[in-house]
């Protein structure tokens, strides 16, 4: 079974990636986790994602556990972007495939059909891990279906032999 992971993050005080919102999407399934700040610092937010340091409710030290348990039963994991792929592969200790390798468009280019109800995402221009995970999963399913249904077109120029009937 295939599963798409996406996350939105803020930069920490030491320029490290601090995952604030993590979403996972599968067949008829989307779940989002929002994490607390990992250490004490002054409050800040991000005008692009709409996230704020005060939005989370899961302790940050449980990030690896939550992620590992959420994806435990899934054979194939996908994410968009090299940096996200590397970070999640290291965190999970298993391969996570990069959708960008399959020429997947940026999730920002998708028309969102999934409506997020998070308070911090009321503005439709905000980057939302939930909407992006759902959009990426839908793209992946269409891509896999398209790959499975490819047939070679009949090209008469490919044949070099001529068959002549004789009685």
Outline the structure in words:
With 167 residues, the protein is of the alpha/beta class. It has one domain (2-147): Ribonuclease H-like superfamily/Ribonuclease H (Nucleotidyltransferase, domain 5, 2-Layer Sandwich). The protein has 3 helices and 5 strands; from the N terminus they run E-E-E-H-E-H-E-H. The protein has a 5-stranded mixed beta sheet. Strand 4 (76-79), helix 2 (82-92) and strand 5 (97-98) form a beta-alpha-beta unit. The longest helix is centred in the C-terminal third of the chain and has 20 residues, at 129-148. The model has no long low-confidence stretch (mean pLDDT 80).
SSE order and pairing:
Layout: E1 2-11, E2 17-26, E3 29-34, H1 63-70, E4 76-79, H2 82-92, E5 97-98, H3 129-148
Parallel strand pairs: 1-4, 4-5
Antiparallel strand pairs: 1-2, 2-3
């Amino acid at each position: 079974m295939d599963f798409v992971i996406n996350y939105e993050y803020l930069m920490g005080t030491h320029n490290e990636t601090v995952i604030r919102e993590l979403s996972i999407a599968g067949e008829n399934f989307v779940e989002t986790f929002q994490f607390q700040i990992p250490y004490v610092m002054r409050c800040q937010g991000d005008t692009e994602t709409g996230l704020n340091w005060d939005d989370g409710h899961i302790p940050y030290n449980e990030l690896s556990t939550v992620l590992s348990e959420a994806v435990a039963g899934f054979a194939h994991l996908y994410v968009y972007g090299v940096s996200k792929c590397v970070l999640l592969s290291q965190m999970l200790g298993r391969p996570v495939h990069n959708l960008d390798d399959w020429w997947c468009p940026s999730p920002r280019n998708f028309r969102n059909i999934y409506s997020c109800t998070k308070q911090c995402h009321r503005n439709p221009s905000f980057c939302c891990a939930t909407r992006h995970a759902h959009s990426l999963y839908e793209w992946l399913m269409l891509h896999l279906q398209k790959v499975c249904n490819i047939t070679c077109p009949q090209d008469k120029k490919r044949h070099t032999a001529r068959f002549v009937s004789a009685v």
